[in-house]
Amino acid sequence: MSDQSEQSIGGNEQPLYLDWNNSIDVLDKAFENGLFALIIGPKGTGKTSLVREYAIQKSRELESINFSLRTRESHLVGTKNLVDGNIGFDEGILVKSMKEGNILYLDEINAAEADVLLRLDEALDDRRQIILKESDGKVIKAKDSWFVIATINPLTHVGTKELPPQLLSRFPVRIRLDYIAFAKLLESGVSAKESAKTVFGNVYSQWGNVEFQKVNDIIASMFGS
Ligand SMILES: Nc1ncnc2c1ncn2[C@@H]1O[C@H](COP(=O)(O)OP(=O)(O)OP(=O)(O)O)[C@@H](O)[C@H]1O
Ligand SMILES: [Mg+2]
């Protein structure tokens, strides 16, 4: 949400989210049925944009974590702290989102280590609860409004593992985003130039500004500027 306001303050034109495959509705149905969702797609296919747009449209709080090999259980669950001689507990993002009933966005979940995934799996099963061994075995139960959306990038191989089938099964609703979005956008009446910019321009930006500029020049030369 803050991204959007920052961009408009900066005077940049905020790209409208184009829901070319009705993903917002699919997410909503998943939520209404108490099912978690997995968004599968390579870099730049709009996974993050979709989740942000969904949260905006539903006016819901979003808690996000981007997984890497350095993500620890403590980031998810929390850690004990000591304040004025009293032992307390700093809640991690998972515990916080369960208690508040927010949307939890688990980005690039397939980059997480096995112990981290195991802990997630505990919270994601039907009981929707987690036992805090870090805090005297306290049981945290998720609110009904708790909703989890994860993403995986099927083309990333470095630092990425296959998700264990058991964890995959916690996300029965799957949304695939792909570069085929270009064709879909065209079909839905978006101009060829806008479609190319949305899909390919943004894909190339991951290799840096020079590549991004090159592809934008190509798009401009093909479709006119
Ligand atoms: N459906 C869409 N409508 C409008 N803009 C889009 C759409 N999909 C992607 N974009 C634009 O493409 C860019 C990349 O999208 P985004 O960051 O959401 O992709 P991602 O799949 O999360 O990528 P990564 O794997 O790198 O995290 C953003 O600038 C976003 O605004
Ligand atoms: Mg992303």
Overview of the structural elements:
With 225 residues, the chain is of the alpha/beta class. It has helices at 2-9, 23-32, 47-57, 73-77, 93-100, 114-124, 165-168, 181-187, 192-204, 209-223, and strands at 37-40, 62-66, 78-83, 86-91, 103-107, 129-132, 138-141, 147-152, 173-176. The strands form 3 sheets. Strands 2-5-8-1-9 form a 5-stranded parallel sheet, with helices on both faces. Helix 2 (23-32) crosses helix 3 (47-57), helix 8 runs antiparallel to helix 9 (192-204) and helix 9 (192-204) runs antiparallel to helix 10. Residues 15, 17-18, 20, 41, 43-49, 153, 198, 202 line the site of adenosine-5'-triphosphate.
Write a brief caption for the model.
A hairpin with a 5-residue loop joins strand 6 and strand 7. The chain is α/β, with parallel strands linked by helices and 225 residues long. It is elongated.
Q: Percent of residues in beta strands?
A: 15-25%
Output the structural class: alpha/beta
Strand arrangement, largest sheet? 2-5-8-1-9
Total beta strands = 9
Topology:
Elements: H1 2-9, H2 23-32, E1 37-40, H3 47-57, E2 62-66, H4 73-77, E3 78-83, E4 86-91, H5 93-100, E5 103-107, H6 114-124, E6 129-132, E7 138-141, E8 147-152, H7 165-168, E9 173-176, H8 181-187, H9 192-204, H10 209-223
Parallel strand pairs: 1-8, 1-9, 2-5, 5-8
Antiparallel strand pairs: 3-4, 6-7
Helix pairs in contact: 2-3, 8-9, 9-10
Bound molecules: adenosine-5'-triphosphate and magnesium ion (MG).
Magnesium ion (MG) binds at residues 47-48, 107.
